[in-house]
Design goal:
The complex is a heterodimer. Chain A is mainly alpha-helical. Chain A has 5 helices and no strands. Chain A is about 70% helix and about 0% strand. Chain B has one domain. In chain B, β1 and β2 form a beta hairpin. Classes of the chains: A mainly alpha, B mainly alpha. Chain A: It is a multi-pass membrane protein.
């Protein structure tokens, strides 16, 4: 592979990005009205200012959900391959679940599950 | 997983266990015994550090993703020792600031997670493990830098660290992907014979190096350093300046000396240029700093430039001198940071002019600071002199006389600003000197270890011989 390949790769990247922007600017229909600049919220006219702060509780719940997300992502391949790997894998998964469970317990103790 | 596997992973498993024990403690703690976490963490980590000195077998795990040998194991011990000192020096701050807010345990858990990441990073046998380690070490650090959430500067430090390290990881990852594209493997062992000089690998090497350059804060990538050090809690700044920088230099050295060795005639020039830039910029900016943390930040940038002098050689001598210098640098920098930490925790003062007349009120602290600064500057009786001297010898042995000359010029510049601090402490008088105070036991132990390190490492030569013997296993 010579240096031409890199130059072509680089140029292709530049052309793709600028070209896509240029084309979409060129052929897209343009309309300008107050309604277009207004913040979008489920198709309705928004009520009040849109820069409100969301409750941090949503965020905490989403993060806690991640614990179970990771858990299932690893448990499914483990369950599929279980027959081939035997008892030692069972213990390993128990350790894994224990660590994740500890994390959940910790968040619980810290009051992340309370809706204040 | 059998017993052999567990033994190869000993350091990592024990770190993980400590973190879990601390988590359990936090779950069952109540308001009365919560402060106990400081002692628990330090005692457990001290035990971990001591156990680390037991011999370890060489081997590979997970199909070559993880590997360990005597050299890597020794460097893990150096990192452990450094973190132990950082924890000891931070203990009082944790007790004072974090325990009342009920956030003390998080500090220890995040710091241990970051160290765990660094240990995986330096033990990596392929680029996947390398990247996982890099991320595991960086993400907790961003949280730690923003740990004083009610101070705006601290949040700023966290944001700056996470943004610049995200950019750096992205660049590194792109470099890795180009390496993979040119050779078809991510395993170091397979890459070693497969790399030849062509434009793709050269580009890959430069990008990969740029990403690690952020961690080491070499000059074109140093912009985050001073702001993050100034804003972050002092314990985190010292961790960033010695532990994560040291680990990054170590893995950089391993990769460039083995995997990327065929490109050596190219990266020699790269290192040469960046070394000169880093030394001059770090030193010239350090001259005019008034804040002690910013001052130490620029001094640590300059020290990174000196370290490149050893890396440029590509020989066993280079490996040995770099590791020896990092070991000394950990002790010297932590001595200086420790004193700044002690004074800041007690009085909240961090400016250079606050240090005027310190010798009259706190003679012991100012002596420790003086030793640390002398060692950083490289003044003969203390260890820093030998560290720098060996680095220069290594560079001169490959014929880089002009580079060594530039480095000596820089040592002279750095001497000026290190002595400025010493002059402020010893010769200046102040209307409002920092009043006398006594340090806690942990802080004292933390400072005494650094003093012993600074004095003993320069005088006790078997340590260097030991490092040299292990280094020859790399090439």
């Amino acid at each position: 592979m010579g240096s031409e390949a890199i130059i072509v790769f680089f140029l292709a990247g530049v052309v793709l990005v600028t070209g896509a922007n240029f084309l979409s600017n060129l052929i897209s229909p343009k309309s300008d009205s107050d309604a277009k600049r207004a913040p979008y919220e489920s198709g309705m006219t928004t009520i009040g200012p849109t820069w409100v702060q969301f409750k941090v509780g949503y965020y905490l719940f989403a993060i806690l959900f991640l614990v179970f997300d990771v858990e299932i992502a690893f448990l499914v391949p483990w369950a599929v391959a279980y027959k081939g790997i035997g008892a030692i894998a069972f213990v390993e998964v128990l350790i894994f679940l224990f660590i994740l469970g500890l994390g959940l317990l910790y968040a619980w103790k810290k009051g992340a599950l309370k809706w204040k | 997983m059998d017993m052999e596997t567990l033994l190869l992973l000993r350091q990592e498993v024990s770190l993980l266990l400590i973190a879990l024990v601390l988590l359990l403690f936090e779950i069952f703690a109540n308001d009365r015994n919560r402060a106990g976490v400081v002692s628990l963490a330090i005692v457990l980590f001290g035990l971990h550090t001591a156990l680390g000195f037991m011999d370890m077998k060489e081997g590979e795990l997970f199909g070559g993703m993880f590997r360990t040998n005597a050299l890597i194991h020794m460097f893990k011990n150096i990192l452990n020792l450094g973190v132990l000192i950082v924890l000891l020096q931070s203990a009082e701050w944790v007790k004072k600031e974090l325990i009342p807010q009920n956030r003390g345990t998080e500090f220890f858990i995040l710091m241990l997670s970051s160290l765990l990441g660094l240990q995986f990073l330096i033990s990596s046998g392929d680029f996947l493990m390398f990247y996982l380690g890099l991320e595991l070490s960086t993400l907790p650090l961003a949280a730690l830098a923003a740990f004083e959430i009610y101070r705006m500067r601290s949040s700023e430090a966290g944001i700056k660290l996470i943004l610049s390290s995200a950019l750096a990881s992205g660049i590194t990852l792109f470099g890795i992907s180009l390496l993979y594209a040119s050779s078809g493997s991510i395993y170091y062992a397979e890459l070693q014979g497969a790399i030849s000089e062509n434009p793709l690998t050269v580009l890959a090497m430069i990008l990969f190096f740029a990403g690690l350059g952020f961690k080491i804060s070499l000059v074109p990538f140093h912009f985050w350093t001073a702001d993050v050090y100034e804003g972050a809690p002092i314990g985190i700044a010292s961790y960033l300046s010695v532990i994560s920088k040291g680990a990054a230099i170590f893995i950089l050295m391993i990769l460039f000396f083995t995997v990327l060795k065929p490109l050596m005639h190219l990266w020699e020039n790269l290192f040469y240029l960046l070394s000169v830039l880093t030394m001059f910029l770090g030193n010239l900016f350090a001259l005019r700093q008034q804040n002690m943390k910013r001052f130490l930040a620029f001094s640590s940038i300059a020290q990174a430039g000196f370290i490149l002098l050893g890396l440029i050689t590509g020989t066993t001598l280079g490996v040995a001198t770099v590791i020896y210098f990092i070991l000394i640098y950990i002790f010297s920098n932590l001595a200086a940071f420790g004193v700044v930490q002690a004074i800041s925790t007690e009085t909240g003062k961090e400016q250079l002019q606050d240090y005027e007349g310190l010798y009259r009120t706190n003679p012991k602290l100012s002596l420790v600071m003086m030793l640390g600064l002398f060692s950083l500057a490289g003044i003969p009786p203390v260890a820093g002199f030998f560290g720098k001297f060996f680095l220069f010898t290594a560079a001169a042995s490959k014929g880089y006389y002009f580079l060594v000359f530039l480095a000596v010029v820089n040592v002279t510049i750095s001497l000026y600003y290190y002595l400025l601090v010493v002059r402020a402490m010893f010769l200046r008088k102040s209307e409002h000197p920092i009043p006398y105070f006594t340090n806690t036991v942990y802080m004292r132990i933390g400072l005494v270890i650094t003093v012993i390190g600074i004095l003993a490492l320069g005088l006790y030569s078997p340590i260097y011989d030991y490092i040299y013997a292990l280094s020859s296993t790399l090439n």
